[in-house]
Amino acid sequence: MPARKWTRPKAWLMEHVWAPWAVRSLQKTIQQVTPDAIWMIPHDFSIFPLWLVLHQVSAFKSQRSLFRVHATIQDFPDVHGHGKLWGEERVQRMARMQEAIYAQADTRDATSHPMLNELEKRTRAKGIQMLHQGLEPEDFDYLKSLGTKHQERRTKNQEPGTKNEEPRTKNQAPRKIKIAYAGTILVEKEFETFIRLLNQPSTKHQEQGTKNKELGTKNYELGTKNQEQGTKNQEQITTLVELHFFGAHSYADRPWFDSGWMIEHGNLPERELVEALRDCDWGFIPMSLDDEDPRYNRFSFPTKFITYLAAGLPPIVMGHPESSVMKMAERYDVGLRVNGQGGGEGGWFLVPCSSLAERGSEVVIEKADFGGGRLLADAAIRHKMLPGIVGCARQNFDAEAMRRCLWESIGFGENVNQT
Questions:
Q1: Which domain CATH number covers 347?
Q2: Are 39 and 375 in contact (CB under 8 A)?
Q3: Does 368 map to a domain?
Q4: Interatomic CA distance for residues 69 and 104, integer angstroms
């Protein structure tokens, strides 16, 4: 349903007109199919008919012992300002119904570890696992091949008489740093901040620019020459980075969009998307830097994090320190994490210690280093993040393991009728 116009009347229609119709349709389907299990995903307005079916329909209750119900929670209804759009009382009612569905199901799961903990605290019902998009065996094979290639390259470079890197010729263009963004932009303010960070010149160039300006006051001709050099340096910074957009939405009409270094690829099929992402260096994940929507920040989990892992991309995660994705990146020491607590417009980059072991434990790097491209261009840092990527994916997003756990809980649980 449209999200911004006539939202209260539309929400009333969804609850009082559409939901009863959906209940009748679901009842009819259950009678025709006679399922062994029903998988409920109570999300937004689907909460109403699912709750009605589970709690109020006598015909459904009479058949309840014949099949199992599994519930998956992907998002809470009281996020994204839904209370202002649909009415606070309605949204709180939806939240209570969602919790009741979760508690009454035979088995259950949720989209993040913090969400599982919150639901267990509120309903006293324990989820079987965190269920999300996962990596398939071929994705893990690809990640393994990345480690093998890197090890072979290191071995070759350590051979006597072998140069570590081929020198770049004078006229050869510097390699582009490709940053991917997959999906819809939900926090555009933070995204604009990221764009400004990418355009931020390095500390070295800033100091040189100030010096050049002072020198220009004393010597006009020399100052003009230095100013031109400073402009050239800034242009080089921008051209070192490319931002690649993958998704159904276009942002070419945004004032911050620059076609000189931003490229839109459209909405690609899943496997094509993964292959395109594997040609990039980093994946960007923005969440809100403030905590105005804490239930979304702390309990939802962006799918793009897993998509980047499957492509072997270390993520650049921007968000509040308490957000679920920031905690996941911190726990597994993967990617770069930025929040707004370090002062200044863009905050600070917190780099995992294993990636910069020689620079200390939890290293704080100013945004100027990021804008200059030095940190993002360092391939050694990205390779050091690979074990964290593999470990995080294997422990949390193994598609085969999640399917096996889900099937066993639905098909072979303790309450299943074995006769």
A1: 3.40.50.2000
A2: no
A3: yes
A4: 8
Residue 32: φ, ψ to 5°: -75, -40
Q: What's the predicted TM-score (pTM) here? A: 0.78
Query: Please, are residues 389 and 314 in contact by the beta-carbon 8 Å criterion?
Result: yes
Do 378 and 242 share a domain, yes or no? yes
Task: Say if residue 77 is in the same domain as residue 154.
Answer: no
* 249 and 317 in a common domain: yes
Residue 37 lies in a domain: yes
Tens-place pLDDT, residues 281-310: 999 999 988 878 888 888 889 999 999 999
Domain around 207: 137-160+174-397
Q: Is residue 297 part of a domain?
A: yes
Q: What is the pLDDT of residue 418?
A: 34
CA-nearest of 279, 249, 243 to 261 is: 243
- The one-letter amino acid at 385: M
Please check whether residues 200 and 115 belong to one and the same domain.
no
CA angle 50, 54, 57 (to 5 degrees): 105
Specify if 165 maps to a domain: no
For 262, phi then psi, to 5°, come to -115, 130
C-alpha–C-alpha distance, residues 339 and 350, integer Å: 8
Q: Read off the pLDDT of residues 223-240 as tens digits, 9 standing for 90 and up.
A: 445 455 544 444 444 458
Which helix (H) or strand (E) segment holds residue 284: the answer is: strand 282-286
Contact yes or no for 100/55 (Cβ under 8 A)? yes
Structure tokens at 108: 């259950």
122 and 220 both lie in a single domain: no
Contact 289/263 with Cβ under 8 angstroms? no
Q: What is the pLDDT of residues 115-167, one digit of tens each?
A: 999 999 999 999 999 898 899 999 999 999 987 765 555 555 545 555 554 44
* Highest mean pLDDT (candidates 7-16, 50-59, 198-207, 334-343): 7-16
